[in-house]
Amino acid sequence: MVKSSNGINRRQFLNRTATIAIAPMIVRASVLGLNGAIAPNERIVFGAIGVGNRARFILPNFLSFKEIQFAALSDCRADRLKSGKEMIDNFYGNTDCKTYSDFRDLLARKDIDAVLIATGNRWHALASIYAARAGKDIYCEKPVTLYIKEGRALVDTCKRYGTIYQAGTQRRSTASYKFAVEMVRQGKIGKLHTVEMQVWTGPAIPHQQATPIPEGWNYDMWLGQTPWKPFVPARVNNWPYFFDTGDGIMTDMGCHYTDQMQWALGTDDTGPIEFECSGEFPDPKKYMSDTMITGVGKCKYANGVVGIIYQRRGFTDRYIKYIGDEGWIQVDDETDEIKAHPKSILSLKSATGSSWANASDHIKNLLDCIKSRKQTLCHPEVAHRANTICLALTISARLGRKLKWDPVKEQFDDEDANRMLYREPRAPWKV
Amino acid sequence: MKTQTECFIVNPEPPGKFNVKGFMKKLVKSLISICVALTIGFQAYCESHKVETDLPENFNQAVKLVVSYQSGSSMEPLREIEAVVVKCKGNPVLKNKVESALEQIIINPLSTIEAKKFACQQLAIIGAVNSLKSLGKLASVELTSGFACMALVNSPSPKAASEILAQAYRDGNLTAKIQIINAIGNLRQPTSIPFLKQILAENQTQIIESALFALGKIGTREATDAILRFNSSKPEIYGISVADALLLCAEKAATEHRREEASKIYDIIFNSPNCPLHIKRAAFLGLVKTDSDGGILRIEKTLIDRDSSLKPVAISLIPTLKGSGISRKFSNILPSLSASEQALLVDALARIGDNIALSTIQNLAISSIPEVKFAAITALGNIGNEKQAGLLLKALSETTSPDESRVIETALASLKGGEKTDIAIAGGLQKSTPETKARIINVLGRRYATTTIPQIMREAASSQTAVSRAAFKVLSRMCSDRHIPALVDGLINLKSSQIRGEAENAIAAVIERSQNKKQCESIVCERLTNIKDIDAKVSLINLLPVCGGKKAFEMAKLAYSDSNSNIKEAALRAICEWQDISAWDCLIKIYENPDSDSHRVLALRGLTRILGEENIRPDAELVAKYERLIKGAKSDSDKKLVLGALSGCHHPEALYLALELVKEPTLKSEAIEAVKKIAAAIQNKYPKEASEALVKIK
User: Fold this and answer.
1) Pairing of strands A274-280, A403-406
2) d(CA B630, CA B69)
3) Does any CB of chain B come closer than 8 Å to the CB of residue A237?
4) Is the CB of B542 inside 8 Å of chain A's CB atoms?
5) Distance between terminal CA atoms of chain A?
6) Is the pTM higher than 0.80?
7) Residue B659 in contact with residue B693, Cβ under 8 Å?
8) Is the pLDDT score of B44 beyond 60?
9) Residue A94 to chain B, least CA–CA distance (Å)
10) Short-list A156, A243, A226, A420, CA closest to B153
11) What is the three-class DSSP state of A404?
12) Contacts of B175 in chain A (CB under 8 A)
């Protein structure tokens, strides 16, 4: 019965840490009794585009659904294709999974209904757009785009083809986050005036010279739409921290929290009207990475609510905190713990659900929507608008000035910033 | 009398004798004066606002260094140029200078590819105007084509950029050509249509596909005609590309209020033979948007049609339809649909949520088709209120299916209507079976129905384990301070002994949240003094550490001297779980003079936990307490337990104590680990002590 100083008893604490620490693992379909448990016409055939670390983390969540059948994989690295195939084949107990080094060949397959896109960020929107044009429904990892106009193109393309699309901002399906948003919406913390978000300190990657492209890599495909540059191992392995291929931690992780902020504010189809961001960039003499190490980004909504993203401290210190004139509520991302003032808010929480590490509820929402053709929780407009906040902040940081934003026209009050809304893709890719 | 202003504007020339030559002279003079004034004005503005129009001293040097830039070398010159680029806003003089310098980089034959990439990216930010020709040359080369187009597409002169690109097209290879066509498409200039039409006559598939897409992006009537003409003369392999392009054209027409034109294009796509489903779906969505009735008739027709492929998407659009009678119209169609389509339509009707929709859904909540029934129950939960509670409660009492039960419970939990609905649902407790009662209680918990706490309290006293268990679980969340006396009485009078632990946990959770722990302590102690039942006493003793406080601690100590072994053991556990160091004296006595070895071990666990929590205030006094525990230890496992806590005590004395234990062979490895941990933690504050200790364990 004894409670620890933070109000959790030791047994609960152990249970909780166990839940967080255990990474999803793949158990054979036959063990789960999934083989043949569903009629073929009920089955949704999936292909995976990009089978790196993130795909491997989330695949067990997908495979736990009996209606999902993974039939094909695509990656520009031969080693990943091989091990990815082994993983899928091992799950189904056969050798049926087909592999493709060019995802367009996977998209050309008529039997594939949907795709899981877990590539590097530079590919997220473009692969989604190609998938939508090929008539596939989509689960795509975040951040959903690399630049704002690409986000708008993603929204338009999915609308055009009636594509069902779920962005991998799975905290919308996570009990703790849903609860926090619900409390804000019910006015339990009074009138919301500030949303504080924290992501971790970004790294600085030292200079490294170009090397020959390793065997088994389709580097041209790896680069995708981004401007050509030579193969530099440290740059390729740390792509999130380079402007051409990622947008740094502020966008990579920040979009999870801006998504929550937008949800709480009910601004899913619009956004803030002002952005200001500054931060510390790597020393160009020593480092080749060019995205922020630490920084503070502020955005302001038309109703006066301010969102602040801090990029600082360690990986485990990330959180979102809603502050109102009568209290606050915070979700700690690492532990999934909710803190609040007044504490009485916490008693309103019902039985705990899965943490963000389990995306099953989010995937379930996608599957339901594929059948009903309804919008998912994180449809393209939602994802694009949340991502826009992060991208606009990093534009502000790059230009070193405050920017005003028209969320209807999706234009800044600044010509240079407007030109940073778009990056012409390298041929043959087009948005 | 004329005013001064009127005098000023009076033409000195007599009427009818307008002197063209003189006027032109004056006009030119005036224009020159304006230009001079503007230039002087801008310079004055720059001076007064400290706008820097000169390039920084190091700029030219930075440009020189950038020319030879490649991965692996310093990026400092790149950042120096970027810093000037961001200052160009509103400063045309500086912008021209920077653009010129960047152009020098891209035309310099010695420039590396990475230097050219950098220069183009900067031009893309400031907006290339004077460097278009140089960029055009770069666009025709495969490796640099992408960078060049990045800058060209962002040019403030899109027409000029398109022309430059069209000229560059001739010299490019396949990849560069595709890049150029894509860029032309993104510049969206109708003047590019003749050029793109020419390209359609070429014979390379990728080029033709890109040109079709570019025409689609331009999307004017002329572009549409070009695509349609191409479609009538070319093989079917371009079918998808043509459809994609036409969809873009139709979208543009619809946006520009050319509805008929858009509708015509969508119609062509929709009716084209062998049209893949996703293209057909896209055309269908477009047609619904452009239909004059908002798509009502088309959706209705689709649902009646034999082809079921578009029915789900048609149903998903129903809630967006405007006009009266929508619910009735589609409710009438519902019986003709398949089970899964009916389920989708039920959901769509629920999203409309009017009375007709509600009535249709209520009728389907008793459907014999499970899929439809489940959908209707879920829908009722989403749109219903207290009036639907009875129907759902009846369904809950009748169902034997766990799946159906879950769906009904969720629906009941979702019903709107606040307290009225809560009361209506709690009304179901009276006549239900124990199993249903437990489910209803769960629902009330999910609704956080605090007005029904008295009813749930009554159920907590039930002799039915499932009911009592469910009630305590829910009460643990919903109750507050004022409910504690009743909850404690409920625990004392518990009829089902199987759930005693759960009931204790529930009350503990309420006490834990309480803002008035003193009152909780008082209630629990008062009841503990007055009751005789052993089990109830044990339960209350278990609650003492959660309450905390001196009185509660005294009660725990008193209970430890009780002759009943159950009470004694509960009391010891309570003392062991005490939340602060006030339990130290009592526990150390038990540890050093135990009634039994099991009591000694329990006391030791409690003591190490307390010390572990005290580690946040490490001092010599705390280490002395650890030492006392070590001295009283009867086995290696006792000492290992103490060592585990000691390793978190960041103080030099703790380090010395751990070092002492290194000497004991059976504890050596654990003691070394402890030394390492403590040394690492105190290294900054006590570097000498830490390093000496680490040397000793080497």
Assistant:
1) antiparallel
2) 66
3) no
4) yes
5) 59
6) yes
7) yes
8) no
9) 30
10) A420
11) strand
12) 427-428
